[in-house]
C-alpha cells in the first residue's frame, strides 16, 4: 500500500496539488503553461462540465465535437511537470481508496501547446514545431531510472558537441509518442529536438548580473545536429513531459507556435493568431 505521506490526498479525496478526482479528467489532455491560456482553448468547447484551480494548476474538462477533453495549466518548469504527471497518473492508475496500483493500467494522451522562439533560420515565425525529441538540460528526470526510455546516442553526441560540464548533470533525451506524432503530423509541422532548461535566465544563457558557466552554449546548441535532427527551440517543460510519460506508459507530444526567430531576428506581427491557429488545428485532430 502506498503510504499517505507519499500519495497525499485532500479531505475530499482529490490529489493534493491538482485538486482533482478521477472522474474530473478525460483521457485526452492538453497541457498549457499559463493558467490564462486554459480558457483560450476551452472557449471553443461545446460545453464545460468541470472547472477547478489550485495554485498555478487550473483544469477544465468539457466536450468538443463529441470528444471529452481536459485542458490543464502546468505552470513553469520541470519541477511542476513532476507534480502534474505523477498526480495525473495516480488518478487513472492507482486506486485512491485502497492506495494500490491497478492491475490494468490506463494510458493518457497528453499534448502540450506552447509558444516558443525558433533557433533555426529555416523555421519562420507563425509556423508550428513538433518536438520529435525532448532534450532535458535539467536534472529532474535523473531522479528516476530512465536508461530504458532515453536515447543515449543523442545524449552522448550532445555532451561531446557542447563540451558539457557534467557537474551540471548529464542531459537526457526522450522521444515523443509515435502514436500522437502520426495523429497530429502534417505539412504544417516542422520537426526537431526541443531543449528543456531548468530555469529561465542562466540555464537559457541569459545574463543579467550573474556570469554563467558556458557563455557559448546557445551557439553550440544552434549548430548541433544528430542524423538530421537539429535543436529547433528552447523552453522549460517538454523533455520532462516526455520522460515521465514514457516511464509511466502514457503518450505525449509537444507542439509550439513559433512567434520569434532568433536566427533572423524576426518576431510575429500577430502572435495571438499563430497560437489560435495551433489550438484550432490540435482540437480538430483530437476530435477525429
- What's the CATH first level? Alpha Beta
Q: How would you characterize the largest beta sheet?
A: 12 strands, mixed
Helix content: 25-40%
Global geometry: globular
Can you write the helix and strand succession as a string?
Answer: EHEEEHEEEEHEHEHEEHEEH
Task: Determine the N-to-C terminus distance.
Answer: 39 Å
Rg from C-alpha positions?
A: 19 Å
The CATH homologous superfamily: Nucleoside phosphorylase domain
And the CATH topology? Rossmann fold
| Unreliable residue stretches | none
Strand content: 25-35%
Count helical runs. Answer: 7
Q: Give the overall average pLDDT.
A: 95
Would you report the number of β strands?
Answer: 14
Briefly note the structural class of the backbone.
alpha/beta
Do you know the CATH architecture? 3-Layer(aba) Sandwich
Give the total of domains.
1
Task: Describe it.
It holds the Pfam family PNP_UDP_1. Its EC number is 2.4.2.3. It comes from Flavobacterium gawalongense. This protein is of the alpha/beta class. The chain has a single domain, classed as Rossmann fold (3-Layer(aba) Sandwich), CATH 3.40.50.1580. Helix content is 25%, strand content 30%. It is built from seven helices and 14 strands. Strands 1, 2, 3, 4, 7, 8, 9, 10, 11, 12, 13 and 14 form a twelve-stranded mixed β-sheet that branches. Strands 5-6 form a two-stranded antiparallel ribbon. α2 (78-93) packs parallel to α6. The protein is globular. The relative contact order is 0.19. The model has no long low-confidence stretch (mean pLDDT 95).
